[in-house]
Model the fold of this input.
Amino acid sequence: MSCPWQQVHIAQVDERVAPAADPDRNLAHLRASLLDHAPLPPDHIHAMPVEAADLDRAAAQYALTLRDVAGSPPVFDLVHLGLGPDGHTASLVPGDPVLDITDADVAVTGAYHGRRRMTLTFPIINRSRLVLWLVTGSEKAATLVRLRDGDRSIPASRVRQDRSLVLADRAAAELLGSDEKLEVQK
Done:
């Protein structure tokens, strides 16, 4: 089975506010792992405009781009998320005011680990048809249990579970029950 690349659009979930050449940019990792290897049309790659002088305006413009690509309101077929040891996902981090945004699909965060970020908000993530979580590393094992249990004190638990699929490595799944571990390992 091949992927219909001509019909695929890739939009970023979040990005660090940093120059284009910065190796910490998520886009650099996305290019190295996927975009440089997939025959996507260049105009189907939608990078977050984090180099703009006015980040709030850039976030609003990116939201309009997403509407052009995925409808109004935008609905993604798939959103790929990770899980941080502190319970963050995308750049929706504990204590940041963007956690409570309900009227915008894209927002700019405060500083987190020394950088501001642009991120999708919960409303657009929760409209997606499927959320695919990729969780790796033993430092995330306790947080993965909290996610599974719907612990609302961590941002990741605000993502709809009824449309989520979690893929976890053995280290991240080490604190899950034995039945769940077997499903993860298959």
Q: What stands out?
A: The longest strand covers residues 131-135.
